[in-house]
Specification:
By secondary structure, this protein is of the alpha/beta class. Helices cover 49% and strands 14% of the residues.
Length: 444
């Protein structure tokens, strides 16, 4: 068809000899000159058409190229939700992207990821027991790691991704290791202020390490880090006012406005629960509600602790008790002060929403991550830190009331938190990922 096109439309037409009196030699010269000139012009036109067609084909091929990405995330929401936020942003940037999550079977990630609309495939668990040197379970760690890595190699061979993104959890290490073995681009995203052993090892095999805080850069190999912030899914409730958010928890209180006097305290002990936080609140919540008529409490007990707390807590119209918060962004919007553990993602959400906070870091998290996160929050946003050794009902009640009674301090804490946050983390990470894949494709 292309040859027919060229023949009919690009083949030069011989000119008709002029009818006026001209010598034969002059006629021949004019005709030959016209033929040569038109032939040159048409040759150039043909080249231009061919070049344009080639360029269009290249652009179309680039547009149609499918980006295949594997995410490795699991264990807790702090690892899972950043991965989902990045995946959402990749889908916005390249709707044709094919995304696969690898994780532990029958786990939090298997439920969360499928409900977010992404494909999920399980791989064998590789769990590092604590303490590392004195746990008999770790004797079998090399065997389990080899088994899981081989399984990951098979998954990567079948899916054939251009890049693998690890956001933490036990599943992240063997998946990223398998990707490095296969020569696939690897990036990791570290949510905590100080990394764990697994991500520190993986950083030496990775192309890019995305970190949330400037202070984390020194923990990784030089030149690998990009300070992006933690990716947080905040977009769904951007247009909701504080008053509307409050009414979603207390619909019968039509007068619960953002009037400067009404205060909402949000208590978050994590998705599973925090026993020490729950007990401290149990001994103080009723007295606070009786003494402060303008105070409302939103209390997430955690799934494992809810039944016990529900049986002990008295119903009150200004108390909202729940095992798990499905609309965490609404809860942040409604709250004036947040009492929370110091998980990495919780800390970053508090910064992103500009919330004054009282942090009670868990002493049971490996490598002291939560205490380090809480200390950084104190530096960045003047968050108040209460260790579990210091925690009791009197200490907690005093901290809450002192903060609620100091409007200037709350405003300063909010301003500092917002200033420290990076709300475009997901978009920035996605931009660097796409650039890395493009560079990788060009080199190939």
């Amino acid at each position: 068809m292309a040859s027919t096109f060229c023949y009919h439309f690009l083949t030069p037409k011989l000119p008709t000899p002029p009818t006026h009196n001209t010598s034969s030699s002059e006629t021949s010269q004019v005709s030959l000159s016209n033929i040569v000139s038109k032939g040159r012009n048409l040759t150039i036109l043909c080249c231009r058409v061919s070049l344009k067609q080639s360029t269009d084909q290249i652009v179309a091929a680039q547009d149609d190229a499918v980006l295949r990405v594997v995410f490795a995330a699991g264990g807790t929401g702090g690892h899972i939700y950043p991965a989902i936020a990045i995946a959402d942003e990749l889908k916005l940037a390249k709707p044709s992207s094919q995304i696969l999550f690898l994780g532990t079977p029958n786990s939090m990630e298997s439920a969360s990821i499928t409900s977010a609309g992404y494909d999920f495939e399980p791989i064998p668990t590789v769990r590092l027991a604590r303490p590392i040197l004195f746990s008999l379970q770790n004797l079998f760690l090399p065997y389990r790691l080899i088994k899981s890595t081989i399984h990951c190699l098979s998954k990567l061979r079948d899916f054939d991704p251009q890049i693998v993104i690890g956001t933490g959890g036990y599943v992240s290490f063997p998946t990223c290791l398998a990707a490095a073995i296969k020569g696939i681009k690897v990036v990791i995203q570290e949510q905590n202020s100080v990394p764990g052993v697994a991500n520190w090892v993986l950083s030496h095999l990775s192309d890019i390490v995305f970190v949330a805080f400037n202070s984390t850069v020194d923990c990784f190999p030089k030149g690998k880090c990009i300070v992006s912030g933690n990716p947080v899914r905040l977009s769904s409730k951007k247009g909701v006012s504080k008053g509307v958010a409050r009414l979603s928890f207390f619909p019968e209180w039509k007068e619960i406005e953002d009037d400067g006097e009404t205060k909402v305290v949000l208590i978050v002990g994590g998705s599973l629960g925090a026993k020490a936080v729950n007990i401290a609140m149990l001994n103080v919540y009723h007295q606070m509600l009786m003494e402060k008529e303008k105070v409302f409490l939103i209390w997430q007990t955690g799934v494992e602790a809810f039944n016990e707390m529900e049986s002990l807590v008295k119903n009150h119209p200004r108390l909202y008790l729940t095992p798990f918060m499905h609309s965490m962004d609404l809860a942040y919007l409604a709250a004036d002060v947040v009492i929370s553990r110091a998980g990495a993602m919780t800390c970053y959400e508090l910064l992103a929403f500009g919330k004054p906070s009282i942090m009670i870091p868990s002493p049971n998290v490996s490598e002291g991550h939560q205490f380090k996160n809480a200390s950084l929050m104190a530096d960045l946003a003047d968050a108040q830190v209460i260790t579990e050794d210091e925690l009791d009902s009197t200490t907690l009640k005093t901290a809450i009331e002192d903060l609620l009674g100091d409007e200037r301090k709350m405003a300063d804490m909010s301003e500092r938190a917002l200033k420290a946050a990076k709300p475009n983390a997901s978009a920035d990470i996605t931009h660097h990922i796409l650039s890395l894949v493009d560079v990788s494709s060009t080199k190939k």
